[in-house]
Each structure stands twice: as structure tokens, then as C-alpha cells.
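Weekly sync, protein design subgroup
Attendees: M.S., D.O., the rotation student, P.L. (late)

Item 1: inverse folding check
M.S. brought a backbone from last month's batch and wanted to see whether the design step gives back something sensible before we order anything. D.O. pointed out we never logged the input encoding, so this time it goes straight into the notes. C-alpha cells as presented (501 positions):
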């Protein structure tokens, strides 16, 4: 693609989301932020490669920057009578697409788009409609159009069953009905991006749907430091409604508070910033929460990862698989003991983790998590998978408490929390600039997504790299539970300070 108005299927889908993306790609690519997930790309490649085996053997059109070579190779495979062609390439009038799988169907072909998701989304239909349009324009008789995606109810038992792992969803009628709309979209996109002066397109829901736009920071740079988009818990649709009505800044929001029915939590978030309010505490409610805890207290945090293609028996696509936990055991006098588990790379981690967990947490003790619904779901899954451990696991589940409660209920509130009760906002609000709690200073693993990706791919690394990643994972997860210890201490301090005041 050498001309800005040339469109591949990926560029077409970008243009459907917002044609200004294509203009910025051409003229201001330096303004783009990295919003691509390497793990998502890895999953797509993994699923795409596996899907090529669905119909047995297939002829693969090798990638080339010279698109003509790929289209010529495709035509050669068609002449040779290939039943299935992967990456079948077609080009006409500046439009180009490479079909994931082109499968022969009598005197025509079935067009199959492969996705690593578990359902068909609107943008996938646009993708398939563009491909159908290009192939039809190239004289290829398209009989059926399918979206091949993962079957979320498939549970692996023994060898991988591709016929059950994948679902072929027939989208033919929907895609055919979009043919004229594709032609109109192509013309509209080309008209929008063919100008040399930057076209005007205001921010809106399309900035985040179906994908987060790499240029959102650039296009939203006119927003004030504190705006309606910073309000926690408000629907994006509502935020954009206020924005387009000129209610943008925190001052605007307060001025129109009655008109837009601003709720108490949003008003508190706004006023705490504008009026520079000190931290607010409801010590009665905090004390009530603290009274529910018993010592020794077991601070617990899991790390999990997901496999698009399940490698282990009893696992579904994208099932959360726990591979690590950290446990800080706190006595009533503040004494700490740390225990941890990290599974061996390349193995099913669940049994070993569950066995160690029930050894580390005795029955009847009080455990604490931040947003315990996640930890509870992990424990429930382990109990279901391993009936012999179910009694001990269920006891842990039933004695788990949630450190998030005082912050979710705003019993402790700071302007720095920005209306959120996520620990990524709560921790720095309680301990600003504390080097002991600085996730950015960690090596290699700084958040849950990086932890998941590190373990998912760890087995493919060298022994030296594995050792470094294991160390990084242990440091990260250990900091998660130590952070909980520190958050709890701050709650206790608030109660003590109020009692002595």
C-alpha cells in the first residue's frame, strides 16, 4: 500500500472506527501511543496458525511486502486445485485483503475469517464484508462467509479436538447485505483522508470502540486537567453527552449539578479537587470493618493467566489459571511472615498451587484480599477441580474478607484516589512517593498483565531469562500483599488518630 487512499482490510477497519486514524498514520504517526497488546497479538497468531489445520492440509501463501507476489501465488494455488488456501491474497482498485482461510466449496469458495475471540463482534462483520467485497470485485465466487472463533464451552480432555475447539459461525447473509454499504464506506474513508490539511473529527465513543485509539491523547489534548472524563463510575455514553453539551470541566459539572443529576460520589470527587480538601475518614465505619478481622491475618493475592488454546485437561479457552500467590501473615502486634508459591514454567500449575495453599492457610483463620471476588472465584475453581481439597479450599473461601470495602464505601477518601477504589489509585493516595511501594522500580514485571504474559511465555526462554523472570514475578506478587499490609495499617492509624484527637 503506497497511496494514502489504498485500503487493506486492517486499514479499512481502522477507517470504519475513525477515518482520522488513517490520516494521522500518514501525517503524524509520532503522535500515536502504544495501545497494542503483545499478548493479544501472540494469541491471534497462535489461534491463526492452529486454524490452518482445521480442514487438514492447506496451501500457504507466504507473506511478502510485494503484494503482487502474494496475489500471483494465490492464483497459482487456485489453478493447481488447492482445497484450502491460507492467506489467500486479492487486490483490485487499491483494495487489498489476505483471507485467513479460503476453502473450496463446489464451483466456488467459502471465505473464513479466523479470530482468537469467543464470539463475533460488529467490527469482525465489517472485516468480513470488506473481504467479500474485494473477492467479489476480483471475480471470486464466494459461496459462504464464516467467522471461525474459539468455542468458550470447549473443555479439553486428552488430545486437542479442533472440531470442538473452533466454532464456524455462518455470517453469509449479514455480510452480503453489507455489500453496498462497504462501497459507500470506502468512498467516504477515501474522501476524508485524501486532504493534506488535518481533517476535523471530535472525540466521541468511537475513540474507544471497538479498540482504544492510539491517537486519543493527541485528539483530547484540549481537555482541561480535570474533566468529565475523569469521573469514576460514570458511563462513557453519559460523559460524552455532557461533553458535547459543553459541560466539560469540574467547574462546569458543579454549575450544572442539578440539571445533570450529579450524584454524591461524583460531587465529592469534584469538590475534593476544587476545594483542596484533606483526606476524609468515617472512623466509625472503618472501626466496624476492622472489628470483622481476626489475627493472625493472612493477606492473600493470586496471579493468573489465560490460554486461548487450553494446554491442560479440564481447561476452557481463556479460563483463569492461577500460577502464583503471595501470602503475608500478620500477627496482631504487626509481626510479618511471608510465604509464596510460583509454579514451574510449562506445567499445569493448579494442583501444586492448591496443595501448597491449603498447607499455608490453616482452616478457620481469617484471610484478606483486595477485591476478594477475584480470589474467591480462583479458590472456587480449584475446589471444583480437586474434590479431595475442596473442604480446605472452601474454608479459605468462606473466611476471606475484602480490604476494598472501606474504600468502595468511601469510609476513607482522598482526592488523590480520583473517585476510584482500585488499589492502583488507593495505594499511591495513602503512600505518595513511597519508594518501598513503587511498582515502577520493579524489574520486568510491574502489573498483573505483565505477570500473566511473563508466565505464559516463560517456558520459551533461556534458563538465565527464566531465572530473572521468576525473580521478577516473586518480587511483584510479594509487593501486592505487602501493599495490603500497608493499606490496612493506614486504616488503623486513622482510627487511632481519631480516638486521640
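Designed sequence read out in the meeting:
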Amino acid at each position: 500500500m503506497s497511496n494514502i487512499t489504498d485500503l487493506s482490510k486492517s486499514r479499512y477497519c481502522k477507517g470504519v472506527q475513525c477515518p482520522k486514524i488513517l490520516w494521522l498514520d500518514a501525517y503524524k504517526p509520532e503522535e500515536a501511543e502504544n495501545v497494542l497488546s503483545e499478548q493479544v497479538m501472540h494469541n491471534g497468531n497462535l489461534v491463526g496458525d492452529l486454524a490452518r489445520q482445521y480442514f487438514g492440509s492447506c496451501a500457504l501463501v507466504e507473506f511478502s511486502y510485494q503484494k503482487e507476489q502474494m496475489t500471483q501465488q494465490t492464483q497459482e494455488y487456485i489453478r493447481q486445485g488447492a482445497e484450502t488456501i491460507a492467506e489467500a491474497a486479492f487486490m483490485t482498485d487499491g483494495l487489498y485483503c489476505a483471507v485467513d482461510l479460503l476453502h473450496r466449496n463446489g464451483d466456488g469458495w467459502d471465505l473464513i475469517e479466523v479470530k482468537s475471540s469467543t464470539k463475533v463482534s460488529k467490527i469482525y462483520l465489517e472485516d468480513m464484508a470488506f473481504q467479500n467485497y474485494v473477492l467479489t470485485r476480483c471475480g471470486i465466487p464466494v459461496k459462504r462467509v464464516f467467522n471461525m472463533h474459539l468455542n468458550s464451552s470447549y473443555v479439553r480432555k486428552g488430545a486437542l479436538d479442533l472440531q470442538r475447539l473452533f466454532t464456524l459461525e455462518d455470517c453469509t447473509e449479514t455480510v452480503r447485505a453489507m455489500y453496498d454499504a462497504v462501497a459507500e464506506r470506502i468512498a467516504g474513508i477515501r474522501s476524508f483522508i485524501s486532504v493534506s490539511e488535518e481533517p476535523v473529527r471530535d472525540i466521541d465513543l468511537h475513540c474507544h470502540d471497538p479498540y482504544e485509539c492510539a491517537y486519543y491523547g493527541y485528539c483530547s489534548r484540549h481537555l482541561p486537567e480535570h474533566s468529565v472524563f475523569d469521573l469514576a463510575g460514570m458511563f462513557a455514553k453519559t460523559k460524552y453527552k455532557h461533553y458535547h453539551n459543553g459541560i466539560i470541566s469540574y467547574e462546569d459539572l458543579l454549575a450544572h449539578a442539578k440539571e445533570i443529576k450529579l450524584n454524591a460520589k461524583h460531587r465529592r470527587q469534584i469538590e475534593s479537587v476544587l476545594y483542596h480538601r484533606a483526606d476524609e475518614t468515617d472512623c466509625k465505619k472503618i472501626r466496624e470493618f476492622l472489628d470483622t478481622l481476626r489475627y493472625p491475618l493472612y493477606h492473600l493475592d493470586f496471579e493468573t493467566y489465560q490460554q486461548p488454546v487450553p494446554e491442560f485437561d479440564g481447561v476452557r479457552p481463556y479460563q483463569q489459571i492461577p500460577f502464583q500467590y503471595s501470602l503475608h501473615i500478620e500477627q496482631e502486634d504487626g509481626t510479618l511472615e511471608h510465604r509464596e508459591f510460583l509454579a514451574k514454567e510449562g506445567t499445569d500449575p493448579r494442583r501444586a498451587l492448591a496443595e501448597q495453599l491449603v498447607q499455608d492457610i490453616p482452616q478457620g483463620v481469617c484471610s484478606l484480599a483486595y477485591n476478594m471476588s477475584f480470589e474467591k472465584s480462583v479458590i472456587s475453581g480449584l475446589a471444583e477441580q480437586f474434590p479431595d481439597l475442596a473442604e480446605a479450599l472452601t474454608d479459605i473461601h468462606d473466611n476471606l474478607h475484602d480490604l476494598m470495602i472501606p474504600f468502595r464505601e468511601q469510609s476513607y477518601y482522598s482526592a488523590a484516589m480520583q473517585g476510584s477504589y482500585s488499589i492502583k489509585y488507593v495505594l499511591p493516595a495513602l503512600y505518595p512517593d513511597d519508594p518501598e511501594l513503587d511498582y515502577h522500580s520493579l524489574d520486568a514485571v510491574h502489573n498483573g498483565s505483565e505477570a500473566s504474559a511473563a508466565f505464559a511465555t516463560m517456558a520459551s526462554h533461556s534458563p538465565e531469562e527464566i531465572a530473572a523472570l521468576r525473580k521478577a514475578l516473586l518480587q511483584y506478587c510479594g509487593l501486592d500483599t505487602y501493599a495490603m499490609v500497608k493499606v490496612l495499617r493506614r486504616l488503623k492509624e486513622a482510627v487511632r488518630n481519631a480516638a486521640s484527637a
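Discussion: The chain is about 45% helix and 15% strand. The chain has a mean pLDDT of 97.
Action: P.L. to compare against the previous round before Friday.
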